Amino acid sequence: MTKQFVLTHVAENISKLENDKTMYGNPVTILNIPWKIGYCRVDNAFQIYLFREKSETDCCIENILELSHMYQAQNALRICEEYLTKDSNHSMKLKVRLAAKYKLDKLKKHVIESMKTKADVRSVMGPDLKELDASILEELLEKMTSF
């Protein structure tokens, strides 16, 4: 599912903007994610930046991943992967699903390595194996045989 949004901003005091200085607009929340626009003048060229405020939480990480993937924002994807690896309370099953969908290899590796029992592996596999990516299913079956 692709989510699109339009962000509008009125840049004020543009004539006062000095070369190599950045000004920021007020944050606005779209899709449960806080965004901020920055603009600057560099060698008489006007540049506009879209910043995502730090907002990695379990409630909005999927929205951030979706937008990061849609706009090919590799740094944002990396930050999300790091959050899911270190701070998230999401289930292993959801983390594996997100790792497969957004090709987050470090997250996938972390989750599989953190499985300590056959029950952990079964909880990720779930009742319908068709839902799993073939490469992940193969790794889960290998993990299952390691116990």
UniProtKB/TrEMBL annotation:
Please report a single Pfam family linked to this protein. MATH
What name is this protein filed under?
MATH domain-containing protein
What lineage, starting at the top, does this entry show? Eukaryota, Metazoa, Ecdysozoa, Nematoda, Chromadorea
- Where would I find the MATH domain in this sequence? 12-85
